[in-house]
Design a protein that fits this description.
Number of strands: 20
Distance between the termini: 36 Å
Strand order of the largest sheet: 3-6-2-1-9-11-12-10
Strand content: 25-35%
Radius of gyration: 22 Å
Structural class: alpha/beta
CATH class of one domain: Alpha Beta
Helix content: 25-40%
Shape: globular
Number of helices: 11
CATH architecture of one domain: 3-Layer(aba) Sandwich
Length: 404
């Protein structure tokens, strides 16, 4: 008998028919001898609808109130899943994040989990009841509802799996595993039977939408066995595993892209010690995450300081930076939301030379200009104009021979 956490994404619970499919899967797994806990996202599109309602009132709604609003989507989905299981002869009970409880810090809209008390869930499991837990939700020390950021239901599932010491956490989605790139963009994309935590972490952070970044980090830290599989078939998925020796044979395993970033340039900042620290401290204090940073020093003792943030944070970032730039004597602030980040990921980069050269030459042959570059031990990322996204992905997928 295995204890399995089954997490279902928004598309998996996007309609009554799909919710009934989730119920059948859970009951079948239980009848096969496994103990089951379900973690569910909101129904597909529901969170966006709730955000849009708030933004009709103001473009910068209060984060605490936003968490109150968007948390309701998961409540509805989990209640419906529990009803569906019960209607099919099973036994299920829904839980909100604060009923479990899942404790977090006080960072509204991007809270971090601090503790989970799984006693209620384990009691139900032993009694043959399937707990259905809202993903994405938590509770801070003051009793406020918090949410974990977009894609946070993945993190909820992995954290619950760690808390109950599950044998495996299965992430059910609308794809049947992790591919070498987006198969909708590149027909030759190939499903991987396994990928390392490090590669998956890089791919997720770089735009691969199969798993949320923090969920992969959590799985790697707490050694939670993780599988990505389809809600709509019984085919095996992709296992997220520890690194093995045979995995360094390939230069690259994945080409990822992200069109959800925006570029901010603080123009002609005085090139003095402490200027960059003031800018990025202000951004950090506002709880805004920065991705890539480039600094270009000019001959006139000024510098252009360029960085990327998510498009969702662009308005807030610009409102924060413009008065600060004026105070620091900068010439102005320019933004560009028509960009895409393209990345090549692979453990093999540790031992193969010339990967960056191959990547840049391949893009140059297609006339694609590189705006920014970032590297780590197992990835290279570039920022380009978003109109070249599909061409760049296909070009690099072919260059590194990732096709099926």
């Amino acid at each position: 008998m295995a204890l399995i956490v089954m997490k279902f994404g928004g598309t998996s619970v996007g309609s009554v028919e799909r919710i009934q499919n989730v119920a059948r899967k859970a009951i079948a797994a239980q009848k096969a001898g496994d103990q089951i806990i379900i973690v569910s996202s909101a129904m597909s599109g529901e969170t966006n609808k709730l955000i849009a309602l708030a933004e009709q009132i103001t473009k910068l709604p209060d984060p605490r109130e936003m968490d109150q609003i968007v948390a309701t989507g998961e409540n509805v989905a989990c209640g419906l899943v529990a009803i569906a299981i019960n209607s099919l002869g099973g036994k299920a009970k829904s839980y909100t994040g604060f009923q479990v409880p899942v404790y977090t810090d006080k960072a509204f809209m991007k809270a971090r989990i601090s503790d989970i008390r799984p006693e209620n869930l384990l009691k139900d499991v032993k009694a043959g009841i399937i707990p259905v837990v809202t993903g994405f939700q938590g509770l801070d020390a003051d009793g406020n509802i918090t949410t974990l950021g977009r894609g946070g239901s993945d993190l909820s599932a992995v954290a619950v799996a760690a808390a109950v010491k599950a044998d495996r956490c299965d992430i059910y989605t609308d794809v049947d595993g992790v591919y070498t790139t987006d198969p909708n963009m590149c027909p030759s994309a190939r499903k991987l039977t396994k990928i390392t935590h490090e590669e998956m972490l890089e791919a997720a952070s770089l735009g691969a939408k199969v798993l949320q970044t923090r969920s992969v980090e959590f799985a790697m830290k707490w050694k939670v066995p993780l599988q990505v599989r389809s809600s709509f078939s019984d085919a095996p998925g992709t296992m997220i595993v520890e690194e093995t020796k045979d995995m360094e044979g390939l230069v690259a395993s994945n080409v990822a892209y992200d069109k959800n970033e925006a570029k901010v340039t603080v123009q002609k900042v005085p090139d003095k010690p402490g200027i960059a620290a003031k800018i990025f401290k202000a951004i950090g204090d506002a709880n805004i995450n920065i991705d890539m940073i480039v600094q270009n020093v000019s001959a006139d003792s000024t510098t252009d300081l360029t960085f990327t943030v998510t498009k969702a944070e662009l308005t807030r970032t610009k409102a924060l930076i413009e008065p600060l730039a004026k105070e620091l004597g900068a010439a102005g602030v320019a933004t560009d939301s028509n960009i895409a980040k393209i990345s090549v990921v692979g453990l093999g980069m540790r031992s193969y030379a010339g990967v960056a050269g191959r990547m840049f030459e391949a893009l140059a042959r297609e006339g694609i200009n590189i705006l920014m570059i970032s590297t780590s031990e197992i990835k290279i990322s570039v920022v380009i104009s978003d109109k070249y996204t599909e061409l760049a992905v296909r070009t690099l997928h072919d260059e590194f021979k990732l096709g099926g």
